[in-house]
């Protein structure tokens, strides 16, 4: 059995799970609503306030789907109850971020400011000073994707470390040019 797949998912108070025909699952909680279709091979049941995923056989395909299905379900339940957040920081002289309405505006040393429009369900939050900001929402995949897209606007460069990075991310710096050898 898959170690991840066989672990039951606790359903917190205030979260409602609806299993529709064809393994379409809808999870509704205090933060919002998520819906997703899963493989019809997997059996998803609510047993004693917990979600349980079982697989029909030990075929390689079913083994790989087992852990994946359970992990996606756990992310849905966590998302509608607590939400997800990715924290980023900006390093570099003159680099900063600010919020204009819901839009994130980045000043990254280009000749123009870079504007990032949040998709539905995503919110940006900028700390005072404009050096740290966060991307938050209920869908873990979308939060991670938007954070990666924002980071890609100016990824950390390896010589001075300037750019946008995740909080706690280690950027290995290289030595610069060495002197002339005579």
List the topology elements:
Blueprint: E1 9-10, E2 16-20, E3 24-28, E4 33-37, E5 43-47, E6 50-54, H1 60-81, E7 84-91, E8 96-100, E9 103-107, E10 114-116, E11 123-126, E12 132-137, H2 140-151, E13 163-166
Antiparallel strand pairs: 1-6, 2-3, 3-4, 5-6, 7-12, 7-13, 8-9, 9-10, 11-12
Overview of the structural elements:
With 182 residues, this protein is of the alpha+beta class. It is built from two helices and 13 strands. It folds into two domains: 9-81, Ribosomal protein L6 (Outer Surface Protein A, domain 3, Alpha-Beta Complex); 84-166, Ribosomal protein L6 (Outer Surface Protein A, domain 3), CATH 3.90.930. It has helices at 60-81, 140-151, and strands at residues 9-10, 16-20, 24-28, 33-37, 43-47, 50-54, 84-91, 96-100, 103-107, 114-116, 123-126, 132-137, 163-166. It has a four-stranded antiparallel β-sheet with strand order 11-12-7-13. A three-stranded antiparallel β-sheet has the order 1-6-5. A three-stranded antiparallel β-sheet has the order 2-3-4. The longest helix is centred in the middle third of the chain and has 22 residues, at 60-81. It starts with 8 loop residues before the first strand and ends in a 16-residue tail after the last strand.
Q: Strand order, biggest sheet?
A: 11-12-7-13
Number of domains: 2
CATH class label of the largest domain:
Alpha Beta
The percent range for strand residues is 25-35%
What integer is the average pLDDT?
92
